[in-house]
Amino acid sequence: MALSPASEVLREALSTVPGYAGLSRIWEALPQARLVGGCVRDLLCGREVHDLDLASPFPPEEAQRRLEQVGAKVIPTGLEHGTVTAVINHHPYEITTLRRDVSTDGRHAVVAWTDDWQEDAQRRDFTINAMSLDQEGQLYDYFGGVDDLRAGRVRFVGQAAQRIEEDALRCLRFFRFFARYGRGQPDEEACQAIARLKDMMARLSVERVAMELLKILSGPQLLRTLGLMEETGSLAVLLPHHAPLSDLERLLACDDPSEPLHRLAVLYPPGGVGGQGVAEIGAYLKLSNESRAMLTAFAKPEPKLAATLDDDALRRVLFQQDRSILLLRSWLVQAQELGRPDSGWDELRHRLEGLEQPVFPLAGRDLIALGVTPGPEMGQWLKQTQLWWLERGCRPDAVACREWLGRQLSPR
């Protein structure tokens, strides 16, 4: 991970970030504002930057007034937390007033405004997230974030236990950031503090826990990260009764896509451990209805998938289940059967992606034209015709289906 000098970062890397042009307007209104947090971290290590977040010593109402004076549209997204969002050329920039904590309750903090940059940086979670960058390219690193970033070290600002007691969600964030930026042995102080305070996570909002867990499941170094979570006792708190991590290891050995839900499905197979399956874990984590439906679809035994399916069989399963679900299910079956890469399964997915979605070509009006009276009998004939169509790999068109049905009806 190569780190560039701050001035070079601003001149070269920052100029390529979407939304860079709007920064000049922000700095015109708030000349003391600095880029903060993740964008500074990722600029320094050459990773893609998605959001340009800034901090400013101006109170939020004053920041809003100044930004509006230079023509920015300002949305008061979180005035009580000191945050406004400036929209310039359709690009959003989150700008937060420098803060210090007055009190915390293990998740939420009461804050007061400050003009002390180091005091604001001190309330951030990790040293690699506590750096800031001004418009001149000057990097401000109060806690050794550059050295930690260079060494692949994820370390809490200040004492790990104190930071966790302020906000227990930082335990989960430690694992997520370690997966993405960590190398070598994890920070011992952090792991000891998490192991001692892990039960605090049980009091967190399930929705926030689910959000962090899904990010971890979609990220790099997954087995190592979950293993570390298991060592600290965190995994048992957050994902009780999960299947052995060796099941997940078989999936990852297949070079699966980084889709968190089908990885979660491996940890909670149908029936699960202690009765905890995909349906139960989806409800426990309060996932969206769409996510729960996807987990349930993964768990269904039908339609059956195999690397040896020909195109007719593949069209039949595609008619029965959504393509995106089938593609993800194929990785689950491959993991169960082989637990390694396989060209046959790769070829199956390639063919599945290339097939057109089968659509049964008959409707009730076609049967009425053939003399079938609307009602239960029509439903039975439609079902029989569809079975005939499926047996032939969903290939017969509407004409062929009507001709076949007409022959079945002719003796009547």
TrEMBL record:
Domain tRNA nucleotidyltransferase/poly(A) polymerase RNA and SrmB- binding positions: 187-243
Cofactor(s) named in the record: Mg(2+)
GO biological process: tRNA processing
Keyword Iron: no
Residue ranges occupied by any Poly A polymerase head domain in the UniProt entry: 33-155
Keyword Cell cycle appears in the UniProt entry: no
Coiled coil: none
Keywords associated with the record: Magnesium, Metal-binding, Nucleotide-binding, Nucleotidyltransferase, RNA-binding, Transferase, tRNA processing
Top-level taxon of the source organism: Bacteria
Molecular function as annotated in GO: metal ion binding; nucleotide binding; nucleotidyltransferase activity; tRNA binding
Family, as annotated: Belongs to the tRNA nucleotidyltransferase/poly(A) polymerase family.
PANTHER family documented for this protein: CCA TRNA NUCLEOTIDYLTRANSFERASE 1, MITOCHONDRIAL
UniProt name for this protein: Poly(A) polymerase
